[in-house]
Design brief:
The protein is of the alpha/beta class. The chain has helices spanning about 20-25, 65-70, 105-110, 130-140, 145-155, 175-185, 205-220, 230-235, 255-260, 265-270, and strands spanning about 25-35, 40-50, 55-60, 80-85, 90, 90-95, 100, 115, 190-195, 220-225, 240-245, 245-250. It has a domain at about 125-180. The protein is built from ten helices and twelve strands.
Length: about 280
Amino acid sequence: MTSAKGSKMQIPTPDVSLSTALELPAVFVRGARKSFGDREVLRGIDFQINRGEVVSLIGPSGAGKTTLLRCLTLLDTFDAGQFAYGSTQVTREADDGRATYDKDSVRRARMQFGIVFQNYNLFPHYTVLKNVCDAPIVVQGRDPDRVEKEARELLERLGMAEHADKVPNQLSGGQQQRVAIARALAMKPKVLYFDEATSALDPKLTADMHDLIRELAGDGMAIGIVTHEMGFARDVSDRVAFLFDGKIVEEGTPEEVINNPTDERTRAFLSKAED
């Protein structure tokens, strides 16, 4: 994998300069592998997301998309490969070639990303406001008054200010998703992942989600999306990666991958995919 200037990408050390760090991908993976028993699910994944870029990961069920997302969000671990968030080197290679994880690097990496799950994972007994405020206060140790002020601003931005005192079961699916996004943004991440961002949304809310993602990318955030919605991936993405049988077999702009795929496996998948 090469950088935008065509030179070979190097995993940075923690003491790189700020100017160098800003030139690094927000997310960087090379040669990533993951097995469950005798089944190798990820087979040498090279993947990155740059700052201000929206990248959609598509592919058939069982291709490894969920496993890759779980490893990227540190819910699971790669068996081998290089993995970094900006200047934070998450994995190192052991003598036997396996990936090892440093506790301090993992802690710093967790502060750099947020994720909006497909089922939102809101705390059902917390109000909307408490759902958004909880992690910045408990995990990051930030000032509660400051966090609440920022949380209310996020809810206002997402059209949810009037629902701050409701609990999740009083909200629609689209409203719950907006709360989940506010909760993720409250952690001030550099990278935001969406797991099936539009699967439960009507066309109006899907359009709103498109606008929000492009707005976040315009602010410099790196966005990674796992989706089965080809129309959404085509419209919102700067780049699309097609995952098949544990490998990224085709990658490029939406025009290249979705409208004019060159790999036979991509063409076969898209011919059956429903927008």
